[in-house]
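I'd like us to work through together how a protein chain folds, taking it slowly. To get us started, please write out a protein record for me. Label the sequence line and the structure token line clearly, so we can match residues to local backbone shapes. Once you have written the record down, we can walk along the chain together.
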Amino acid sequence: MTKLFDQKWKLFVSGAVFGLLAMLLAILGNPGNMAICIACFVRDMAGAMKLHSADCM
């Protein structure tokens, strides 16, 4: 039972940390829909390197 509690505790703490990080990034200027979206960062980096020319919405 203790091992299960440890795993749930780590999951809760990591979720809270990433949630706060996303909120902080949105407050500091990232678009609200992109706070820590990995797919968005990859898409934007590919666009910045001229690997695609799709219009961003």
Notes: The CA atoms of residues 43 and 53 lie 10 Å apart.
